[in-house]
């Protein structure tokens, strides 16, 4: 596996570590919003709480029939990994950052997206999208 991967957003192209579950938006937050130097991973209960919310959103969307059960189950399994602390090292954004939590939520979404995917990290970063902005539930791009 290569040591890095390339991701794109509306600002351009960036290189990320190949084994990082987070994406380009988290990388930009790390560069631009390093306010306290304290990453959210230093508060594992906060990270767990975010995963519980995402898990509930996936379950609710599945139960409402707007999210395929296999995708919801994969997201919920990814949330369980976060809740268990298995992916804590991926939550690197600053505890106090600009954007009213946008960077933190993007880091959570990216980490869950990759963990839920059975694809490689670089394929997963291109293969899923947000279904609803309120819940940040993921679905495959068509």
Question: How does the SSE layout of this entry go?
Answer:
Layout: E1 4-9, E2 12-17, H1 24-32, H2 44-63, H3 69-83, H4 102-116, H5 121-127, E3 128-132, E4 137-140
Antiparallel strand pairs: 1-2, 3-4
Helix pairs in contact: 2-3, 2-4, 3-4
Structural description of this entry:
By secondary structure, this protein is an alpha+beta fold. It has a single domain (4-140), classed as Fumarase/aspartase (N-terminal domain) (Fumarase C, Chain B, domain 1), CATH 1.10.275.10. The chain is 46% helix and 15% strand. The strands form 2 sheets. The chain has a two-stranded antiparallel ribbon with strand order 1-2. A hairpin with a 4-residue loop joins strand 3 and strand 4. The longest helix has 20 residues, at 44-63. The protein is globular. Mean pLDDT is 79; it is low at 119-142.
